[in-house]
Design brief:
By secondary structure, this protein is α+β, with helices and mostly antiparallel strands. It contains 16 helices and twelve strands. Strands 1-7-8-10-9-3 form a six-stranded antiparallel β-sheet. Strands 2-4 form a two-stranded antiparallel ribbon. Helix 15 packs antiparallel against helix 16. The structure holds adenosine monophosphate and magnesium ion.
Length: 518
């Protein structure tokens, strides 16, 4: 295996001078060199061959012992120096101070076909940022991160990617439900990949410490390599940089809303500076359409990170980033103008995204009303988001709408009169509205199917793959991986995954709600 290694991040940013792997506050540095922990019995369970190809690694090479050792931290690629990144963050609305890669270790940077990728292991052992935890990850959360990041990519949602999923062979102690019953679980390591793993918190940490020099250095580095179109460093281009991050963040969140993805932990340390979905923890997919839903049990009380609040939290996080960038901009008004624009853009982008989901490709002043009415109606009774939108494309004046979306209701037998009346009324308005469109039904179906996925990674699906993998059967991981490569295609032979969450999964741990334990 021959990789084109680059070390731009480590060469151009300040390293922690302390070489020891001890837990501590790391100042004046963007990262610390640290080696992954060797594992007892590494075993690669799955590889994303698309991602391997992007890195110039062949399918054959991914079956080698060297690859297995490399993606589990047991061998270091020649002439590379792994490192953990230093960052801080706001967690659940509060300043949390230094966090950093507590269990992520960056292996190297690869350049291939004009793209630069950072390859990182998650769950490869302690770093100076591990605080009170062990630096490890368990199989269940690793399966979830591995499958979801590749699924998001194929859905067209900006995301970090995954290269491989492996067992470490070590046992890891976790109190999964945080109820005082810790138990050993299988340890696992995901190798994940992104053009950059910098987070809002990577910038916040310098500002919090009054370290404007390193803040400026990191911003200049980020602009140079990731926003080169902005040109030379200047106050004006720092504002433009903030504007770009704002736009990318909004773009990402609109995609989340479109596919029904709920991140679950939108802390500023989990917000990528490139607007990528990052850190797949207690995330979930909407089954019943519900603005109030969050998969994260740790967020039960305030539901800060609920589906309907994601756009607001994106903005809240951007305020924290604005504060972090202030020392090199020193003007409030332009930052506020950018933040204000986010709200305006959110309204229009969100409206257009919903129009596309409904197959409306012209604009009508009454659309907002039609959409709000739909969202209210969807929430009257538990109605599956994915099934609803996918089936809606087949609506015509000859098909009674309610019949078409029957499969989406979780309790079809007990639909109240009120609910059926509301739906019938909505379909009347929808039918009238569709008449103003110019596309043929066939074209409309095609366009709607390109934005309304047929297959998403429902929590119970991951959980089934996890339960089987725990028993040593990895076939379902591959089945879901292949299914989710084409989430918008019909794939009639895989129709069983185009279904509501089964009732057995409603309250099963891992299938509906998750804690942060991972
Ligand atoms: P998360 O909520 O997973 O984004 O993690 C928040 C912070 O805790 C990050 O700094 C992580 O690196 C760190 N962290 C989470 N789990 C562990 C672990 N098992 N060992 C060490 N650090 C961890
Ligand atoms: Mg994180």
């Amino acid at each position: 295996m021959k990789l084109s290694i680059k070390n731009k991040f480590t060469e151009e940013n300040p390293a922690d001078p302390v070489a020891e792997n001890t837990r501590r506050q790391v100042e004046n540095a963007a990262y610390s060199y640290v080696l992954p922990k060797k594992t007892a019995n590494p075993k690669v369970l799955h590889v994303s061959l698309e991602m391997a190809t992007e890195l110039s690694i062949s399918a054959k090479e991914t079956t080698s012992e060297f690859f297995q050792d490399m993606v589990t931290g047991n061998q270091i690629y020649p002439n590379t120096k792994p490192y953990a990144m230093c960052y801080a963050g706001h967690q659940f609305g509060n300043w949390a101070g230094q966090l950093g890669d507590g269990r992520a270790i960056n292996l190297f940077e690869v350049e291939h076909q004009d793209k630069n990728w950072k390859v990182q292991l998650k769950g490869a052992g302690e770093t100076p940022y591990s605080r009170t935890a062990d630096g490890l990850a368990v199989l269940r959360s690793s399966v979830r991160e591995y499958l979801c990041s590749e699924a998001m990519f194929h859905l067209g949602v900006p995301t970090t990617r995954a290269l491989s999923l492996s067992l470490s062979g070590d046992a890891v102690l976790r109190d999964m439900l945080y109820d005082g019953h810790p138990a050993y679980e299988k340890g696992a390591i995901v190798s994940r990949v992104a053009p950059s793993f910098l987070r809002f918190g990577s910038f916040e940490i310098f500002t919090a410490r009054g370290d404007t020099k390193n803040l400026k250095g990191l911003v200049d580095y980020t602009i140079k390599h990731h926003f080169p179109q902005l040109g030379e460093a200047s106050k004006e281009n720092y504002i433009q940089f903030f504007k770009e991050v704002t736009e990318r963040t909004l773009e990402m969140i609109i995609h989340w809303q479109r596919v029904g993805f709920v991140h679950g932990v939108m802390n500023t340390d989990n917000m990528s500076i490139l607007g990528l979905t990052i850190d797949f923890g207690p995330y979930g997919w909407l089954e019943g359409f519900d603005f109030g839903w969050t998969p994260n049990t740790t967020d039960n009380q305030h539901k800060r990170y609920r589906y309907g609040n994601q756009p607001n939290i994106g903005l809240w996080n951007l305020y924290q980033l604005a504060n972090a960038l202030y020392p090199i901009i020193e003007e409030v008004a332009p930052l506020e103008a950018v933040l204000h624009q986010y709200k305006i853009d959110f309204e229009s982008k969100s409206l257009n995204m919903m129009r596309a989901k409904l197959g409306l490709f012209t604009e009508d002043p009454a659309d907002l009303n039609l959409i709000q009415n739909l969202e209210d109606t969807l929430q009257l009774t538990e109605t599956d988001m994915t099934l609803f939108f996918r089936n809606l494309s087949r609506f015509t004046s000859e098909t009674p709408g309610l019949k078409l979306i029957e499969a989406a209701f979780y309790d079809l037998e007990n639909l109240s009169k009120e609910v059926t009346t509301r739906w019938n009324l909505w379909f009347v308005t929808y039918e009238e509205r569709l008449q103003k469109e110019t596309l043929s039904q066939e074209e409309r179906i095609q366009k709607m199917n390109a934005v309304n996925p047929k297959y998403v990674l429902r929590n119970y699906m991951s959980q089934m793959a996890i339960d089987a993998a725990d028993e040593g059967d990895y076939a379902l991981i591959d089945e879901l991986f292949q299914l989710l490569k084409n989430p918008y295609s019909e794939q009639p032979e895989k129709e069983k995954w185009f279904a509501k969450r089964p009732e057995w999964a409603r309250d099963k741990v891992g299938c509906s709600r998750l804690s942060c334990s991972s």
